[in-house]
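Deliverable D2.4 — example input (structure tokens):
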């Protein structure tokens, strides 16, 4: 059985890519047992839907080189 951290990472991946059949089964089984992860999954799905409605063209955006460097600096300073 997978742990909650693995399951939450898998949930986030499902929003952007397809997961394997065995991962789908593991996810469904874990969500059936773990109510906390189930609540997180439902909240995460709702948030993704709301954000995708708000930012319909988000996939078309690309960062400039300066923006990428600023993000790297920000991440490294944490």
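Example output (designed residues):
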């Amino acid at each position: 059985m997978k742990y909650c951290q693995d399951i939450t990472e898998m949930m986030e991946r499902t929003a952007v890519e397809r997961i394997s059949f065995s991962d789908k089964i593991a996810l469904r089984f874990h969500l059936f047992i773990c109510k906390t992860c189930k609540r997180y999954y439902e909240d995460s799905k709702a948030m993704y839907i709301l954000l995708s409605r708000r930012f319909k063209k988000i996939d078309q955006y690309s960062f400039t080189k300066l923006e990428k460097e600023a993000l790297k600096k920000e991440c490294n300073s944490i």
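The mean pLDDT is 85.
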